[in-house]
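Bug: token stream looks shifted between consecutive jobs. Job 1:
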Amino acid sequence: MNGSKGQKELFTQEDFNKNPISLNDELSFSKDLIRAWQQRIHTYQEPHFAKAETTPIQQSIFQTVGVEAIETSPSPQDLVPLPLNFWRWPQNPHNGPAIYLVMDKPKNLEFHILLYIGETIASDKRWKGDHDCKQYLQAYSEACNKADLKTQLSIRFWKDVPHETTCRRNLEKQLIHKWLPAFNKETRSFWNTPFTN
């Protein structure tokens, strides 16, 4: 039986030339579409940023990880911003357990938008390897660039977190629930995030 020869006869080159969709076609996003998506996130997160600016930060809050830990967590804007390629530096500025937050500061918005929250036991290694969020951020950056929108992406590390993985993951889960960052898998459908497909 010569299946491959018969299969080729089902489609001619002319059939492919008629098809307007190519595998090389890229999704394009208009400036208005991206700004509207950013604005929706900003509208939800703005009260959290505003409240965090007026809430004092406790230095060590992890006897128990609960609502009080979330309410007294530092404002993401108060954490030191680093470029996303920080892990290429000769000396890594962070190691050990951390909660990390990836943010952008669109020019037309008052506050940052929080795009991703993650946790790690080894902050000096987690961002080096494969990470879905890196792909989403690249797609987001490229779409913004093509729409003539500037990004100010940064990653920030919160180091005063539990060393125990279960507690740290619980804290990460609560923070994701509070902030609804657009690139976390738990929230992508909520925001109809277009940069993750």
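Job 2, same session, no restart:
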Amino acid sequence: MLHTINKSPFEKDSLKTCLRYAEKGSSVLFIEDAVYACTKGTIFEKQISDNHGNISFYVLGPDLEARGLDNSNLTNNIEIIDYKGFVKLVADNEKTQNWL
């Protein structure tokens, strides 16, 4: 299953809820303001690290760039994808869950 998160983890607990329900083999895609969850040195870095191996993590590159961030700001184990990669993730997963 593909899980998408679009809200900042500093104002919503969507990431925490998502990780509670995401099963092994799931993918999580951070879009819009959720890209802030991917940055080094935040409390979310450990949550992502603890789930790596069971869950694949992705961030939408254009949304990352729109917020002045790049690969050097990212925590480990997060793959940057473009819009084509986003479409591929949707096509490769039978279901998509949006966390608002």
